[in-house]
Amino acid sequence: MPADPDRLRRHPELTLLSDNLPRFLLDLARIGREAARSPDFARSVRHATRWFSPNTGQPWIRPLSTVEWEQSGYDTAVLDGLPPGSHLAVLSGMPLPSDLCFHRAPHWSYGRPLERLDFLTPDLVLAIPTRQGDTSH
Predict the structure, then answer these.
(1) How far apart are CA 89 and CA 124, in angstroms?
(2) Do the Cβ atoms of 59 and 101 come closer than 8 Å?
(3) 65, burial (CB in 10 Å: exposed 0-12, middle 13-18, buried 19+)
(4) Residue 108: other Cβ atoms inside 10 A
(5) Contacts of 30 (CB under 8 A, 6+ apart)
């Protein structure tokens, strides 16, 4: 995820590195061990962690607007109370690492900033854009 919250608001995308924190930490330890054996530690780490950056080139998960969600056959109970323009993404079965880019979804208004990003469950992400005309972000 971008370290700068303003960047995430402007460009609602993040890179999902792992679905399991222990596995991710073991990957980091492996990268560190391999880099320690390398003659150039920094270069080795930089090369091994390129997948930490957004736009990995991996197939990204296509978020669904609430209208598409209703038509998809997924549980519609999660839609209760969501503001217009909200999008959801199902993470189960996705390749890792992968990009999750809400602003690339067909029904996301171009240039509309992100209000809130929530992991409703480990496999379900919700993105709520700012209200139209809200320039406070």
Answers:
(1) 6
(2) no
(3) middle
(4) 19
(5) none
Check residue 58 and give its pLDDT.
Answer: 62
Note the helical H segments in the chain.
5-10, 21-36, 41-48, 66-72
Strand partners, 13: 101
| Mean model confidence pLDDT for the chain | 82
| Contact status, residue 85 vs residue 79, Cβ threshold 8 Å | no
Among 45, 57, 63, CA closest to 95: 57
What is the identity of the amino acid at 73? G
> What is the pTM for the complete model shown?
0.71
Residues 6+ apart with CB under 8 A from 120: 78, 88, 126
CA dihedral angle for residue 80, residue 82, residue 86, residue 90, rounded to 10 degrees:
-40
55/101 Cα distance (integer angstroms)? 9
